[in-house]
Amino acid sequence: MGDDDIYAEEDVAGGELEVGEKSSAIKELLPKLLKWVAIVIVAVIFIVTIVFFTMKIMTRGTTNQSYAVQSPEYATEPDVMSWYGLDEIRTRTADKDPATVIIKAKLGYEWENADIQTDLIQRSEIIYDAMRQYLSSKTAAELTPQTEMQIKQEMKEKINRLISAGKIQEIVFMQYNIFQY
Length: 181
Description:
With 181 residues, the chain is α+β, with helices and mostly antiparallel strands. It has helices spanning 2-58, 72-75, 114-122, 124-136, 148-162; strands spanning 81-85, 89-92, 100-110, 168-179.
């Protein structure tokens, strides 16, 4: 039994030595591991700080900018319309030294409304003449691009009084030129 006790103590002692060797290896590895973890954390904090301040500097001038409010005219999609094209209208203005006005217009009406289309075709000469008379009653100063919307509105009202099958919803100018000689 004595021999068994000796071997048992050696196994126990040998077992303790192995645990001690592993413990000392962990004790040596732990400071190195903690050092690298600390370096990575410091590096991440440094990079985040640099990015934060860089973005703050880059966006400094844009923080107070505001975007223009969208005009109600462009806020909604325009209705789908059918279009009737008029021949080119040429006339002279009512000025003392008259200017030449050349307009090519299209009239927009309710989508595929055959009654309005027929009415426009039947009255195209009258519409053409009414638009020519309207333009020739204006001076070149009244026919500027700044007054184009008003001109279109007045022409639309004049044309709508001439037709009976419906209403013109829109007038677009494909060509709008005023030449002073």
